[in-house]
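re the bet — no i am not wrong, look at it urself. input seq straight from the record:
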Amino acid sequence: MAWELTDDLESFMTVAEAHLRSRPVEHTVLLTLVETLRRRGLTAYGKEAPVFGAWRDHNGVVSGVLLQTPPHPVLFGEVPPSAVTDAVNAFGGRSLPGVNLPVPLVDLFVGPWVARTGATPGVRMRTRLYRLSALESPSGSTRPGESGDRALLLGWVRDFLADIGESVEDVEAVVDDALADGVVTLGLAAGAPTSMVMRTLPSAGVVRIRYVFTPVALRGRGYAGAATAAACAAALADGASEVVLFTDLDNPTSNGLYQRLGFRPVQDRTVVTFG
C-alpha cells in the first residue's frame, strides 16, 4: 500500500480516472481541476508543476487520490484513513502550504505532519458540499452571460475572490472560458445585472455551481437565489445528472439560501494551512 506521486497528468489519469469517476459528486473539484489543467496547461493555477497522487490498496487497486496545484493546499479525494497517514511519509522532504480533507480525516494528516515538520497549523476554511435534491425556484429575472458582460464579470470575479480570501492565477481565462462555454447566469433588476453565478461543464455527469456573487449594495434582495436556481435549471436541462456546490460553513446566509433552493448536505471538509 503506497502513494504514487507524479507530475504527469495523463499517467495519473490512466491509473486514477476510474476511481475519480466512481464518486463524481465527492470528486467534483478534482475532476474539474484536471479538465482545466488539460485545457489551459499545467501552469493554470501557478508557476510550479502540479503534484498528482494515486494510492493503491493491498490488492493493487487505486482507492485514493490527491492533487496539489502549488501554491494551493493538497486536495485529497475520497481516501481510506490508512492512505492519509501514508501521505505524511509520501510528502516527506517537501514543503506543503496546507491540506484539504474530509473532516473525519484531518487530524490523521495534520498531527503527524506538525510533529514531523514543526509547522504551525491553522484552520483556513470549513466547507460543506451540497447536492441538489429537488430544485425550488424563487421568482426573479435572469439571463445568460454574454460577451458584452466581460468587463463586469472580470470585476465581479476579482471581488468574489477578495471576499473569500482566494486567488486565481488568470482571472481573464476564468471569465473567457465561462463565456465561451455558456455557463454564466446573471440576476437582473430592471434589465440591469445584479448578481453572477457560474457553473462548471459536466464532468462524469456532475455540474458544480461556483462564483456566486452579488455586490454588497445589492445583497439581501434575492438576486443570487434567482440566478443560482436558473443556473441549476440550465445545468439539468443540458443533461447534468447531479448539481452540487460548496459553501463556507461560517456563512449562515449562504447555507440557508442553498437549503431553501433544495440542496442537501453531503460532506464537510476542512482546509488547514501550515505556517
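see?? The mean pLDDT is 95. told u. also The radius of gyration is 19 Å. so pay up
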